[in-house]
Design brief:
The structure holds 2 protein chains of 2 kinds. Chain A is built from no helices and 9 strands. Chain A is mainly beta. Classes of the chains: A mainly beta, B mainly beta.
Chain lengths: ~110, ~120
């Protein structure tokens, strides 16, 4: 159960796009289609923004999108807005009914 | 209102025990797997445990297996996390979360802080 690898921080200007990577292995990200992404603002609980690699819950803006290639999942935020500034975490199913989170990425809107 | 509310956190000495509760409202608890996730203040999220709809299947992170026990009472709309042999490194905010499909956690509580310290 090793944590997934995310960049510690990314940044972009309003209107730009940023992509956050999440690297695992063939035992988690590469082996299943169960990758989710969470947004967490300071002092708040995490919020689900992407599940099953690419699916968006109702109410989540279309600016958020997910993808996966081999052992790496990615979250792209297009048309950056100030309110997108937060911590983002990936999470993947790792087999045998266990899950693993990434270390988190701080997104700064310049 | 659809919500989860954790309780039971607090200060406990190393080696001690604590039971966390997660009260569900506004939805049918028995329709969902439930998870516990923890977060050391200022650090990342860590999956702790999962329980299936009726409590017949439970799984744990390596870091807590054998010390923590997850359970549920659907009639009382509550999920529990019994924590024993607590260590300093178990200090964290503990969140309960509702699963909609294979680890997709769409509803979270506000968390309860557990501090393990002498």
């Amino acid at each position: 159960q090793s944590a997934l690898t995310q960049p510690r921080s990314v940044s972009g200007s309003p209107g730009q796009s940023v992509t956050i990577s999440c690297t695992g292995s063939s035992s988690d990200i590469g082996g299943y289609k169960f990758v989710s992404w969470y947004q967490q603002r300071p002092g708040k609980a995490p919020k689900l923004i992407i599940y099953h690699v690419t699916e968006r819950p109702s109410g989540v803006p279309g600016r958020f999108s997910g993808s996966k290639s081999d052992n790496t999942a990615s979250l792209t935020v297009s048309g950056l807005q100030a309110e997108d500034e937060a911590d983002y975490y990936c999470c993947a199913y790792a087999g045998d009914f266990t899950w693993v989170f990434g270390g988190g990425t701080k997104l700064t809107v310049l | 209102e659809v919500q989860l509310e954790e309780s039971g956190g607090g200060l406990v000495q190393p080696g001690g025990s604590l039971r966390l509760s997660c009260a569900a409202s506004g939805f049918t608890l028995g329709d969902h797997w439930m998870f516990w996730v923890r977060q050391v203040p200022g650090k990342g999220l860590e999956w702790v445990s999962r329980i299936d709809h009726y409590g017949s299947s439970t799984t744990y992170a390596d870091s807590v297996r054998g010390r923590f026990t997850i359970s549920r009472d659907n009639a009382k709309k509550t999920v529990f996390l019994q924590m024993s042999s607590l260590r300093v490194e178990d200090t964290a905010v503990y969140y309960c979360a509702r699963d909609i499909n294979w680890g997709s956690l769409d509803l979270w509580g506000h968390g309860t802080l557990v501090i393990v310290s002498s």
